Amino acid sequence: MLPVSNFGELILIGTGGFIGASLRYTVSSRVPKIRNIPAGTLAVNFLGSIVLALLTFSSEPESMIYLVNIGILGSFTTFSTFAYETFRLLEDGKNVSFFLNIFLNVMLCLLGVSIAYLALRL
């Protein structure tokens, strides 16, 4: 990760954080659960993986990395929510959903990175 060295970079990160958190709420609150799987969290993590990979594998200027990768995607994607929701599935005895949620989040996010990588190579 790039070190933050000036106030302008902090403004980019903070602005991106506001945008990402707002987008996360909007997307995840509109995507219903699918068979107990918190699909909203899955959707933001999948989309975030694609966008992060697109920007990382391309040669975007540092300002885009601060705004989008650290700011927007840092607050848009949500591993802590994924962990909490997954734990709740286990706690509620929904063992199949517990394992399926882990599998889908890991595999779809890796797929998202692969899609972005391949798209930039074409």
Describe what you observe in this structure.
This protein has 122 residues and is mainly α. The protein has one domain (7-121). The chain is 80% helix and 0% strand. The chain has helices spanning 7-30, 39-57, 62-76, 79-91, 95-121. α1 runs antiparallel to α2 and α1 runs parallel beside α3. The longest helix is centred in the C-terminal third of the chain and has 27 residues, at 95-121. It is globular. The two termini are 27 Å apart.
Lay out the secondary structure.
Blueprint: H1 7-30, H2 39-57, H3 62-76, H4 79-91, H5 95-121
Report, as a whole number of angstroms, the end-to-end distance: 27 Å
- Taken together, the total number of domains comes to 1
Helical coverage, percent range: over 70%
Broad structural category: mainly alpha
Order of helices and strands: HHHHH
Largest sheet: none
Low-confidence stretches: none
Brief overview:
This protein is an all-alpha fold. It has helices at residues 7-30, 39-57, 62-76, 79-91, 95-121. It has one domain (7-121).
Keywords:
mainly alpha, globular, 122 residues, 0% strand
